[in-house]
Amino acid sequence: MHDQLLNAIDARTDDLVALTADLIRFPTVNPPGEAYRPCAEYVGERLKKRGFGIEYVRGEGSPGDTDRYPRINVVARFDGRSPGPCVHFNSHIDVVEAGEGWSLDPFAGIVKDGRVYGRGACDMKGGLAASIVAVEAFMATYPDFPGSIEISGTVDEESGGFGGVAHLAKLGYFSKPKVDHVIIPEPLNKERICLGHRGVWWAEIETKGEIAHGSMPFLGDNAVRHMGAVLAAFEEELFPALDRKQTKMPVVPEGARRSTMNINSIHGGQTEDFRPGLPSPNVPDWCRLTIDRRFLLEEKIGDVKSEVTSILDRLKRERPKFDYQIRDLMEVQPTMTERDAPVVKAVAQGIMEIFDREPDYVISPGTYDQKHVARIGHLYDCIAYGPGILDLAHRPDEWVGIEDMVQSAKVMAVGLDVLLRGGRGG
Ligand SMILES: [Zn+2]
Description:
By secondary structure, this protein is of the alpha/beta class. It is 33% helix and 24% strand. The strands form four sheets. It has a six-stranded mixed β-sheet. The chain has a four-stranded antiparallel β-sheet with strand order 10-11-9-12, covered by helices on one side. A three-stranded antiparallel β-sheet has the order 4-5-16. Strand 4 (110-112) and strand 5 form a beta hairpin. Helix 8 (342-355) packs across helix 10 (402-421).
């Protein structure tokens, strides 16, 4: 049924590989947000040649936005011959730092053994390239299609998406009637549809003390020891309780199918790096801890917070001189698109056509830009679907398989045909 469309994608394999490699060669490392403009313009220039209207939208005033590191997003739109729904493909163009341990240049876009290597290959320049090629093949095969197609390359996903999808969503870019369906080609494996993610609560806890000479700690009050009591209570009560909370959400990997909390950092007392000076002997009068709590659809954010504050309040009652402050840093509700939502069914049909099997439906352990589409744009017909193996993201020698990109481009193209043309192929 879709032979012509699928052949058009096969014929573009070399182009898909070259596009992926080119995207990797922009070192769009975030933080600080390097090379955003040239990367966004590269995508914009390509799509302009295919007849798309191009907009560059800067995330003015968002965290990290400066003239040295402007948060430049690209949004491309093509309106078909007749009215109809709009399908939007959204990819983030930023990547995390390369880090140590690479056996090849992370920003050279090296093609080898059926793979494209580089930082961002799987997360998610391979997905961006696959969606572009899927759209181009679709437009060439069915030039009379109704409705509209949008492709965006957005910034700052790796740091929360504030200058990227959140900024665009506030401006109405991810709401009806402009957009109806959103596909985010994050690397969730080509046979899986990602329906959403767990919730997040980040907070900073501070314990207070009283400064004194280190030789006479009994004269002061040690904030680090107070934090030690917090950590001990977490170990004894909180972590075992979180472990027992199972979810019906199909989170992958399975270890994340319950509540989790990470201790992101702890700081107190004199700086760890006193060189070239000398350490000075004090009783620390403050200690700060940041926590990263991931919660489930079955949990309420209020309960999630009170689990922590009830422990702190108890310590305040029981432990002499104990006092604390807690500050919210970030809060994201869990989100899960319904399995019978149009975009889910359309991409599922693509997976069935290409792989001759039902898709796996999964939930991501961490959040991605879908949160802004749902929370700010109030658009709930949104999934993540794209090539690449999630476990390779953010790791040395990151790669994306060429065959995976081709196949997932086919899935996206069939999904597009279902959403815009009723899936009739031809
Ligand atoms: Zn990503």
